[in-house]
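Support reply, case 0932

Customer input (verbatim):
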Amino acid sequence: MISVLERPEKHELYFNNFFASYDLLEKVSATGTMRNSRTRKIPIMPVDEVKKKHRGFFYH
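Our regenerated output:
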């Protein structure tokens, strides 16, 4: 979809976590939620630790 845009950097993409994947987010700048099954081998905080954090917490 983004490949047909003349200037992709001038557009914003909105998508839910069903479509979010590491390969997609690596190519476009985005903030969002990824499903645990789509994180591959990315070194991120375990889900059970994230659940203990307050709402609005972010980790990068």
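We compared this against your earlier run and they match. Two observations from our side: The chain is about 20% helix and 0% strand. The first helix runs from residue 22 to 27. Please reopen the case if you see a mismatch on your end.
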